[in-house]
Amino acid sequence: MRYEKKVILLQQMSYTDQLGRVISISSTKRIISLVPSQTELLFDLGLDEEVVGITKFCIHPTEKFKTKAKIGGTKKLNLDEIHRLKPDLIIGNKEENDQYQIEQLIQEFPVWISDINNLDDAIEMIVELGKIVGKEHKANSIAKEIRFNFNTIKIAPHTLRIAYFIWKDPYMVAGDNTFINDMIYRAGWKNAFALDRYPELRIDDIRNASPDVILLSSEPYPFKEKHIEEFKTICPQAQVLIVDGELFSWYGSRLLKTVAYLQSLIDQLIAGR
């Protein structure tokens, strides 16, 4: 009996990431995610087995965090561990990952990079990743629900000027052209600092801006209740609150919870005035 040798060629598909780069991908059986919010999205899409590596900051969902290989932090990736895991696809982000390390990985692996500055960017990312990993229906469902939720938010009746702090020593806030700024806008508020990206501030800058509300994020700097009095001494007229940084800055499936959280803050600030 004569046997014919069969050669199976993996079909490559081309996708364009949010930097406009065309990525050729032949398989998504082994995925590494370099961004916490996108990691959570991948698990919510049902990719429990496909995701083989995550960062030490990819803490959701908890049970997956405990069992998956860690490839360092978002800014300090363990390239040796990434090579050991032999990914078919790496998913990163322009802002959250180190450009030099990403450029190194691009030389050897397909790397799809997101660039998120607003809700529309986030929804586009969710839909596109769904296509890439073969979970288009689920991704579209998540995106549709997120969009619906934001369309139903009852925005603040007063345009409060918000200062959203992400860091201390030096003081840093989320300014224009950030995802957090878009969340502030969608709640019906105004950013007290119309400066680009994440400006550093002096105490006089904060005092002179005279924000109506100061929001202290739980991440990346872990602001606590003890910091409230510190900011009240700078701006006695301002309401000062600790807020959940994940619900302001995570742009994956966690957005399903964001509107309810924003609505609760809107109501709380109205009651406090």
What's the structural blueprint in terms of helices and strands?
Layout (H helix, E strand, L loop, with lengths): L12 E4 L5 E4 L5 E3 L2 H9 L6 E4 L7 H6 L1 E2 L8 H7 L3 E5 L5 H8 L4 E4 L4 H14 L3 H16 L9 E7 L3 E3 L5 H8 L3 E2 L8 E2 L1 H7 L3 E5 L8 H9 L4 E5 L1 H5 L8 H14 L2
Parallel strand pairs: 3-4, 3-6, 4-5, 6-7, 8-10, 8-12, 12-13
Antiparallel strand pairs: 1-2, 8-9, 9-11
What does the model show?
The protein has two domains: 13-150, Nitrogenase molybdenum iron protein domain (Rossmann fold, 3-Layer(aba) Sandwich), CATH 3.40.50.1980; 161-271, Nitrogenase molybdenum iron protein domain (Rossmann fold, 3-Layer(aba) Sandwich), CATH 3.40.50. Helix 9 links the parallel strand 12 and strand 13 (239-243). The longest helix is centred in the middle third of the chain and has 16 residues, at 136-151. The protein is globular and about 60 Å long. The chain has helices at 36-44, 62-67, 79-85, 99-106, 119-132, 136-151, 179-186, 203-209, 226-234, 245-249, 258-271; strands spanning 13-16, 22-25, 31-33, 51-54, 69-70, 89-93, 111-114, 161-167, 171-173, 190-191, 200-201, 213-217, 239-243. By secondary structure, the chain is of the alpha/beta class. Strands 8, 9, 10, 11, 12 and 13 form a six-stranded mixed β-sheet that branches. It has a five-stranded parallel β-sheet with strand order 5-4-3-6-7, with helices on both faces. It is built from eleven helices and 13 strands. Helices cover 38% and strands 18% of the residues.
